[in-house]
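Holo prediction — TUI.
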Amino acid sequence: MIKTGQNRVCQILGTEYPIIQGAMALIAESNLAGAVSDGGGLGIIASGGARGNWVVNEIKKIRAMTENPFGVNIMLLDPNVEEIIDIVCREKVPVVTTGAGNPGKYIKRLKENGIAVLPVVANQTLAKRVERAGADAVIAEGCEAGGHIGEITTMAMIPQMADSLSIPVIAAGGIGDGRGIAAAYMLGAEGVQVGTRFLTSEECIVARNYKDAILKARDSSTVATGRSTGHPVRVIKNKLARQVLEMEKNNEDAEKINEICTGSLRRAVFSGDMEMGSVMSGQIAGLVSKEQPAAEIISEMFKEAAEIYEDRHSIFRTGSSVSGDGQGTIR
Ligand code: TUI
């Protein structure tokens, strides 16, 4: 089992397990983040789309729930980024993750306040830049992930990042069980970030319909909308997603597309509107089949990863350690 002391990511985060909960805007608040931190992972409060007061309050709430470390995610497309940076520095939150942009100009100040900084990146160019600027690790997010995404898959990105960086690479996008963790490690990752699987955790406050949409999803249930406007977002296919794709095909104005998307995440998360809401989800939703406590998700995933490794680590060796049954099956 991977434990603090043996793993650079656990050392940076101060956690028992090298797992970060994905920063799902409007969804990742203290209830979920507190449960993840309590379960030995790093819970994240997502500040995307939120007001400063709300973020301060959520930080207070998580501190009352657990003594374990937690993080705040800063969505760099947000208009109030500067205010959130002030808040996390004042509150001395242990960890900051960033998304949807280059956090370079904020890293020095965050580090001076004793905060570990882990930018989410979607390509090597930005990863190298944030490493030079002093980031502690990168969260390399493949386009299998839900929400705002880049272009490269997790499978192709992780080994290339691991080769070109000295700081640890944490894999994100498409990881939903122990097999995903084991695979990420084989590619060179030293930790994982998981979002979609936590959507159906008992502590996640998302609307019942949203959880059911994840539980019902298949491998082909998501689609990336918004490629034409330069902000691709992976969501569950529904009426809104089909309308947006149609508008993009017809080269309609970005303004018109934005109009039908305004407030759509809120509609999905709080009203459970599965037709005209933006139901952000990763491609791994098809694998998510049960609702369970966040702490159980973490321990189950790492137990599975360890078992798979034990079971299969000799599979590629030829010679005496591998025996065939004469029918092409390797045992
Ligand atoms: O940020 C995310 N995922 C998100 S943010 C979000 S809120 C939202 N709502 C509506 C529309 C758009 C966003 C929902 N999901 N993930 C981290 C992430 N960052 N994925 C990809 C990137 C990324 C992409 C390009 C980071 C940097 C980047 O380029 C910056 C540069 O300068 O190269």
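READOUT: The pocket of TUI is lined by residues 25, 48, 75, 99-102, 120-122, 126, 141, 147-150, 231, 233, 265, 280 (CB under 6 Å).
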